[in-house]
Amino acid sequence: MSSISLWSKWLLPVLFFGLVSGITGCGSSGKVPLAADGKAKISIQLPENPSETQRFAAAELAKYLQQISGVVFSVKQADGSAGPVIKLLRSGDDDQEGYSLSVRNGDILLEGHNDRSMLYAVYDFLERLGCEWLAPDFPFYAGHAEMIPRKQTLDYTDEGKITETPVFAYRKLDVAGTRTHDVEQIRQLIDWMPKLRYNVLRFAMARDDSRDEKWAAWRTALTPELKKRGIIIEVGGHGYQRFLNARMEQHTLFKKHPGWFGKDSSCRPSPSDRLVFNTADSGAVNYFLNNVAGYIKDHPEIDIFDLWPPDVGRWADCPEMKKLGTVADRQARLANRVDSMLKKIRPGLRLEIIAYAYALLPPAPGILNKDIQVEICPINQQFEHQIYDTASAGNAEYVKAIQAWKGTFQGSIGLYSYYRKQAWRSLANVIPHYIQRDMQWYAGVPLAGISCYAEPGDWYTYELNHYILGETAWNPGLNVDTLIRRFCRSRYGSCWKVAEEAYADLEKIVPIYGSIPFSTLKPAPEIEAAQKQVEARLSELRRAKTENRDSVVAANLSRLLLMFGYLRQDLQIQHARASGAPREAVLAQVKDLLAFLQANAGKGVAILTGADDLGRFTKKYGLTHQSLLD
What we know:
19 helices; 18 strands; about 40% helix
C-alpha cells in the first residue's frame, strides 16, 4: 500500500458536506446477534493473505468485543465455511480512505478501500456498539481515557449500508515540540489516532546535527506501531541548518567556504543559523543535497519529509540576491532541487515545504514542482475572529495567502492549524464551534488537509479541541453540538449538563477576554462581567463534584475545575492590566498563577517547563524581565 498516493485525488471542492457520509439502502432489517449467554454468536473473518494492518484490525475488533461482552471472539481466515461472520474486506484502491459497514445474508461486512480505512471501519463499528474514543490513554487518565460499555447481550443494529469518506485527505498530529512527550506516551497517542481517523504523525528531526534527535531515539520502538496501523510517518521541520552549518567539519566549514552562508544586514557572510544559507551557490546546494540524501537513505521509514527553513530565518536581501527573485521563489527552486534528488533515491517519498514568515505568499506561477506538498501556517491567527473574517486584518493576510496559493499552485495545499498552541501557556482556549466553522471554510477552498500540534502534558485542557478536529477533519458537516454532548456524557456521566455549559463558557470567554495572543485587551468592566460568569461556573462545578458519587467523573470534574481556576486567575491579571494596575501588582498576580500551576503539575491540565517559566509568563502578560528589577 502506498502511504502517499492518496493525496492525488483530493483537490476537488466539497460541494455538500452531507455527501461524505451517510446511510443507504432500504432501512433497518433488524439486529445481528454478536454475544449472548456467555458465548460469541459470530466470528471474525480475515481477507485472504491478510496484511499486517488487516491482522491488527481483526485483533482490535476481537479485543474490544471481548471487553464489551466478556466472551472470546475467534479470528479465522477466509475459508468459505458456514456460520455468521464479521468479514473484513478490501475494495477500491489505495488512493482513497473510504469505508463502509453493511449486513448481507446475516454477515456483517466491514469494508475499507485500503488497509488503514479497514481499521477505521472496525473502530466505527465498535463506536456504534457504544465505545467512545475520547483521548489517548495517558497516565493521568488512570485507565479511563476511553469509554467501553459492558453488555452481556450484544447485538448490532442493521441500519442499512453506511458509507464514510473523508473531506480532508490528511489529518495530522504533530509531536515536534516534545516538551512532555516520552516514547510510551507517544505510543498511546499512536494507538488512539486511527480511532479518530487521524492518519499522519509528524516528528521533528534535530535542527542541529550536533544535538540529540528525538526521532532517532524513538524510531525503533515507534515505527512498527505506526506501520501496523497504516499511519503515515512525517519527519523533518525547521532544519536547513541540519544539513549545512558553520560547525560542520570540525567548525571549519565557514572558514573554508564563507560564500556558502547567509549574509547579515551589511551583506557580509555570517555563520549564524538564523540566516538561510546561500541557495544560489552551487557548491553550497550540492553539499546540502548530499547531506539530505544521506539522511533519507538512513531513514527508509519516512513517508513525508519536511524541509523547512530555520524558524523565521532571514533570507539575504542584498542586491545580488534580490535578482534571484522573492524569498518564496528561492525557497521553491531549492525545494525543486531536493525533490528531484529524492525521486532518484526514494521515488515514493513526498516532500513538504511551508508557507510561513518571509515565504507566506506563493512563488511566481510555475516555479514550484506540483508534486511538492505545501502547508500554510497562520501562526498569528486571531481567535477573536474566524480565519475568514475580514474584521481581523491579521487573519485577512492569511486568507489572502491561501487564495493566492490556490490561484497559482496546482499541487496539494494543506494548513497547519493552531488549535492547540504553546503560546497559550495551557490556558483553556477550547473552541469546538470555531474549529468547525474554520474547517468548513477550508473545505470549501478547498484545502487537502489539516495539522495540529499535540502535547500530553496539557492534553486534558485541549482534549475537546483534538476530538472535534478529528471528527470535523473527516466531515466538517457533523453536528458539533451533538458531538460535544456525546463527549460530555461519556466524560462526565450524570454531570454532563454542567460540563457542557462549562465548555460553552470557555468558548465564549477565553478567546475574547483571556490572555490569548492577538486578542485585544478589553475594558475592565467587560472583563468583570466575564469574571462573574467564571465564578458562577466554578460554584456549579464544585457543587457537581460534591454531589457526584463516581470517582472517575469526580477526577474529570477536578481537572475541569483546574482549567477554570487557571482562567479565574488569568482574568484577574487581565483586569489588573486593563485597570492600569502597577507593574508590581500585576507581577505578584503572575507569580500567584505560577504557584497555582506548579501545585497542580502532572494532572494533564497545564505545562510548566521549569526553564524560565516566569520569563515566559511575564512576556505572556506584556511584562518584561526588566519588570523583575523595578
